[in-house]
Amino acid sequence: MAVYFLYGDEDFNIDLEIEKMKSNLNQDFISMNFQIYTNPDYQTLISVLRTSPMMFGNMLIIINAEGYFSSAKNYFEDSELEDIEDALKNNPETLDIVFVVKLPRDENKKLDSRRKLYKILSGYNAKEFPTYKTYKTAEISAWIKNRGKSKGISLENDATELLIEQLGNNLRQFDTELDKLKLVAYPSTTVTKDMVKVICVSNQDLFNFTELIMVGKKDKALLEFKKLLDKKHPLELLSAIQTMLRKWIILKLKSSDCSAYELSKITGMHEFVVKQTLQKLKNTPVSELVKLKENLYDVEYKIKSAESIDMISEVECAIIR
Question: What pTM does this model have?
Answer without folding.
Answer: 0.71
